[in-house]
Structures are given as structure tokens and as C-alpha cells.
Design brief:
Layout: E1 2-6, E2 12-17, E3 23-30, H1 44-51, H2 61-69, E4 74-79, E5 84-91, H3 95-108, H4 113-131, H5 134-147, H6 160-165, H7 168-179, E6 184-190, H8 194-205, E7 226-230, E8 236-243, H9 252-263, H10 269-277, E9 281-290, E10 295-303, H11 308-323, H12 329-346, H13 350-364, H14 370-379, H15 382-392, E11 399-404, H16 411-416
Parallel strand pairs: 2-6, 7-11
Antiparallel strand pairs: 1-2, 3-5, 3-6, 4-5, 8-10, 8-11, 9-10
Helix pairs in contact: 1-7, 9-12, 9-15, 10-11, 12-14
InterPro entries: Metalloenz_LuxS/M16, MPP/UQCRC_Complex, Pept_M16_N, Peptidase_M16_C
Domain Peptidase M16 C-terminal: 169-339
Family: Belongs to the peptidase M16 family.
């Protein structure tokens, strides 16, 4: 059962009681991400995530690391373009300990100058490691190609140059503006009681002031650009993409089915054709990311330079087939069952359930029931696939990004002409 309470200051507490498990997951979702940064402090949000693990007025960094380790729990965090989440998973009897540690990190972190300098080096090393991972980095290159200077086109982690110049004051300024008011969603899932959780969390969060600075959300305008970064790698890491759909778009489930058909798993068209039938790539898949006012639909392939042109042609031929209604009812049924099964299986994890609560509340202002989601997937029709595919894959809206030993030599232009 899912329950929700909204405190007077706007803090939202969500619980999902799952009495047959012995664990509980709790997530503190801060409604702020890299999109809320100025370009001059790009990466500050992720920097703050690091600093919250570096010690509080009550615990050293080692104390924080040991607090949940000693009871077999897990403690972690992640930063995205639109929100930041600090979360823990513990045995149900240790939920109060998890809440205490997370609260201590969130509201009593020291931000000691010597810790800032040490962590600055850690993050620069993290950036270097990320830049040595072209199959991950290429997705940020695609976002930059698609959205150029818009905040959604910047990497969450920032750049080494900006991180080196961030000041202690920059960190505190962002923290004060985004962490010291009621723009939180607290999600708890597992063997918990709603009343107990609400009482515990209300004592902590009810004193926060309401509101916070208004978000300056300006939708990006997609561009058609090609961004190829030469790098001495064995493979070319290639992404093509276009503007997708926001999470509350009426066609979001159609797009999910389209993604599954095209590149969502080993049975998808691209995986079967490019890897299994022709052996042209080791890895190829499609994906979709939703934001508050837009989305990004991407297709990734890791392949040899000499196969780039052929694979681009195959990808756009498959897109064309879907645009022209080439999907069979059998294929549709298989894709929808795949999505349904994957979604329902994910609900067996308390972490996944907690994440679903937090993200749904942030983006939709409510939590959809599993039955509602399954029903929406079942309603998707073949003709809708063609319409959404036509909306997403317009020749004048597609961008390409690559990292590796390849530059656009006309192959992309030639492939685009296949879209008609």
C-alpha cells in the first residue's frame, strides 16, 4: 500500500508498505540537479553530493562509511540533471539509524575547506576516468550536440577546468539555495509502517522553511549537429539521437514500446540484425531519457570504423520500417510483454520501489499504480508506433556524436537521405 503525506512546508513523505520483506529502503530526493547550475559553476551539484560524505558535526567520513556497513546496510547517492538522491537500504530494524545518518549528512555536513580541496582532486580524477570511458562519455557528447549550450547539454559531473576553480563559497551558495527549504521528497519502501515513518520524518523536516528559489526551467531547442571527437581507441563509439518526450507526455508508453522494438534488449531489431545476423558490432541498443519538459531518444553502437556507414544505413532502414507501420502484432505483443515483465520484476526490489516513488512524485506529482502502468502499456497500438516514430525521427532533428578513430565522411549524410 502506498501512502503520502505533504507537510505544511511542502516536504512530501511517501511510504510503500511491503510486509513480506525484512528490509527497508529510504531515499531523500532533493529537487535540484545540474540543470539548476549556472554554466560558470557546472558540476557544483555533484561536488556537493561528494561533500556530504566527508563528515558532519557528529560523524567523521569514516564514521559515516561504517555506520551502515556495521549492520550490513548500504549507503549511496547519485546526481542527475534534475534531482539528487541520497539513499540507504537496511534491515527494517535499522531504518531509524539509516534516517539518522542521512539526515546528519544532509543538514550537518561540515564542508571543511581541507576536505573541499581533497575532494576536488578526487572529482578531477573521476572526470579523467569518465573521459577514458568513451562508451559512457559519448552520451554526453550527444546531449551537447543536440542541445548545445543549454544546461541539459552539459555533463552532470562538470569539467576539470570548472571544478578546479570552484570556491568554497560556490558550494555553500548552491547548498543554501537548494538544500535548506522544503523542496524534498522522502520515499521509503519495505517492511515499514506509514505512521511510524511519518512521525519520524515529520520531526526532522517540518522545521524547514517552505519554497525555495523559483526554478528557471527553459525548454531546450534541439539542433541538428555532428560532433566527432578523435580518440585513439580500437572502436568507434557512436550515438545518434533526437528530442524525445517528457515523462508526462500522453505518448510516453508508445515511445517505451518503440524503444523496446528498436533497441531495447537482445531480441530487439537492431541487436538481432546488426550483431546476431551480420556481426557488425559487439553492442548496440537504444534508450530514452525523460526530463521535465523534454526527452532524449538515443541509439548507441560500439563498432569498427569500417562498419560505421553500413550500421548507420541499417539503423535508419529499421527506423523507416517502423515509421511505415512495419511492425507485426506478434512483435508488438512480445515488446509489450517484455516491458510488463521487466517492470513487474523490478518491483521485487525495495530499492527500485523506493526509486519509483521518489521519481514519480518529482515528475508527475503522484505515483502511478502498477496496474495503471500495465494498463497503459496494453493500450499501445501499432499505428501509434508509426506516428511517434515519425515525430521523433525527423531528418532535420537528428544529431550524431562519436568518439574514436572516425570523422563524418559523408556516411551520416548518406544515411539521413534514407529517411525520406
Amino acid at each position: 500500500m502506498i501512502n503520502k503525506v505533504i507537510l505544511d512546508n511542502g516536504v512530501c513523505i511517501l511510504t510503500e508498505e511491503i510486509p513480506h520483506v525484512r528490509s527497508a529502503a529510504v531515499g531523500f530526493w532533493v529537487d535540484a540537479g545540474s540543470r539548476d547550475e549556472a554554466d560558470s559553476v557546472s558540476g557544483v551539484c555533484h561536488f556537493i553530493e561528494h561533500m556530504l560524505f566527508k563528515g558532519t558535526e557528529n560523524r567523521s567520513a569514516k564514521d559515516i562509511a561504517e555506520a551502515l556497513d556495521r549492520v550490513g546496510g548500504q549507503l549511496n547517492a547519485f546526481t542527475t540533471k534534475e534531482y539528487t538522491c541520497y539513499y540507504a537500504r537496511v534491515l527494517d530494524e535499522h531504518l531509524e539509524l539509516a534516517v539518522d545518518v542521512l539526515t546528519d549528512m544532509l543538514f550537518h555536513s561540515r564542508f571543511a575547506p581541507e576536505d573541499v580541496e581533497r575532494e576536488r582532486n578526487v572529482i578531477v580524477e573521476e572526470i579523467k576516468m569518465y573521459e577514458d570511458t568513451p562508451d559512457e562519455l559519448v552520451h554526453d557528447v550527444l546531449a551537447k550536440a543536440l542541445w548545445n549550450t543549454h544546461a541539459l547539454g552539459r555533463p552532470v559531473i562538470g569539467s576539470a577546468g570548472v571544478i578546479q576553480n570552484l570556491s568554497w563559497g560556490d558550494l555553500l551558495d548552491y547548498y543554501d539555495r537548494h538544500y535548506r527549504h522544503g523542496r524534498y521528497v522522502i520515499a521509503v519502501a519495505g517492511n515499514v509502517k506509514h505512521e511510524r515513518v511519518t512521525e519520524l520524518l515529520s520531526r526532522i523536516f517540518s522545521d524547514l522553511p517552505a519554497g525555495g528559489p523559483p526554478r528557471a526551467v527553459v525548454a531546450p531547442h534541439p539542433s541538428q549537429r555532428v560532433e566527432c571527437r578523435e580518440k585513439d581507441t580500437e572502436q568507434v563509439h557512436l550515438c545518434i539521437g533526437s528530442q524525445g518526450l517528457r515523462l508526462d507526455d500522453e505518448h510516453i508508453y508508445v515511445l517505451q514500446v518503440l524503444n523496446t522494438l528498436l533497441g531495447g534488449g537482445m531480441s530487439s531489431r537492431l541487436f538481432q540484425k546488426v550483431r546476431e545476423q551480420l556481426g557488425l558490432a559487439y553492442n548496440i541498443y537504444s534508450y530514452h531519457s525523460s526530463y521535465r519538459d523534454t526527452g532524449l531518444f538515443g541509439i548507441y553502437a560500439g563498432l569498427s570504423r569500417e562498419n560505421v556507414g553500413t550500421v548507420l544505413d541499417i539503423v535508419l532502414d529499421e527506423v523507416n520500417d517502423l515509421r511505415n507501420g512495419g511492425v507485426s502484432e506478434e512483435e508488438m505483443t512480445r515488446a509489450k510483454e517484455q516491458l510488463k515483465g521487466s517492470f513487474l520484476l523490478s518491483l521485487e526490489s525495495v530499492n527500485a520501489r523506493m526509486s519509483r516513488l521518489g521519481k514519480s512524485q518529482l515528475y508527475l506529482g503522484r505515483v502511478q499504480t502498477p496496474e495503471e502502468i500495465v494498463r497503459e502499456l496494453a493500450r499501445v497500438k501499432t499505428e501509434q508506433i508509426a506516428a511517434v516514430c515519425d515525430q521523433i525521427f525527423r531528418r532535420d532533428k537528428l544529431s550524431l556524436a562519436s568518439i574514436g578513430p572516425w570523422q563524418e565522411d559523408g556516411a551520416w549524410s548518406a544515411a539521413l537521405s534514407r529517411l525520406g
